């Protein structure tokens, strides 16, 4: 029996939007065909829902409901608003790379006088140039995930960063994603960072909104390739507007004796999900991944990490903290797989959630899949409230209830924030957390 799936109004609208947007999307030859295949894969699956195990806590059919049409290219007014917003989010000493409404903007970026061994191009430039190697890497993400497939089909722009072998960058790279338009729309970006052998870099990603931007959607993806004996420090800060949706994906591949240190903090967006796959492709490598959710009102934030130990003698550490107030919902899903050849693996994961309200919710789902016998692995998860005895102690010494709570919350998330190596970036994370605490009321 043949079964025909009826397309909903939302599905038809997205198909029409893809057809209209194709002329704006960069790429030639094979890229166009891969876009079509990716969109077909998304259409077959649709928005993920709770019956899919990896999405059981984040049902986009109810939380997001529909995919908005592609944002128009930013005009002069939008760029002016974005420039004003940039002044409030400057990172001292960093080289700024700016995307506004999903489009790379050279005039707001700092791409002159690049350090020797550093190359920065836009995604559009790379796809239209037909660079086969880079294009293959950019399109290497697994489109069985419907949101990755949608990003593959609709990616409009991004940054492609290459750091040559032996080059250690002296300045952090700051990729700033700004929503500038006043009307609801979706932005589809994809970026690539490649580190050659014996290289080093620090990448900061910020997601922010210009004044008046609301009800927008971010669909982002980042591919990271870390060469042998190289180190990448990665800091990710999500401060989108309170009614925005941010669905981001990342894939990192480590060579031999590489080091990847990553930290993420989500304090903005009504609905967000960060899904990352970290794969060990060379022996002797190390990953430290730390994250913090700071949520209130009805915010929903999901962090889903997949650590793939495929080779021997590698180590990974995961530390995640969530603070949920009001009716907020925090989700952490951490999966570590140790494959048969990955002997001498050392992998540990710990997630803790702090609930500030009886209606707040935290779902923690740590998983281990071990197929090797000579390993050291462990995981743990806890959920609780603020310690009443500590609150009483602080109140008795003259602190207000809000100040006492803020002090305990700062201490709770401090372990994760301390993982940031760069002093300026660590201070940036502390200030971001302080902004959230101040806004709690």
Number of strand segments: 19
- Mean of pLDDT: 92
As laid out across the biggest beta sheet, the strand order is 2-1-5-7-9-11-13-15-17-19
What's the total helix number? 10
Characterize the overall form.
globular
Helix content: 10-25%
Poorly predicted residue ranges: 1-8
Radius of gyration equals 21 Å
Task: Please identify the oligomeric state.
Answer: single chain
**Strand proportion:** 35-45%
Main sheet characteristics: 10 strands, mixed
The sequence of SSEs as H and E is: HHHHEEEHHHEEEEEEEEEEEEEEEEHHH
Distance between the termini: 59 Å
User: What structural category arises from helix and sheet content?
Assistant: alpha/beta
Structural overview:
With 441 residues, this protein is α/β, with parallel strands linked by helices. It has 10 helices and 19 strands. Helix 8 crosses helix 9. The longest helix is centred in the last third of the chain and has 17 residues. The N terminus is likely disordered.
Key phrases:
single chain; 441 residues; alpha/beta; 10-stranded mixed β-sheet; 9-stranded mixed β-sheet; 10 helices; 19 strands; 25% helix; 36% strand; disordered N terminus
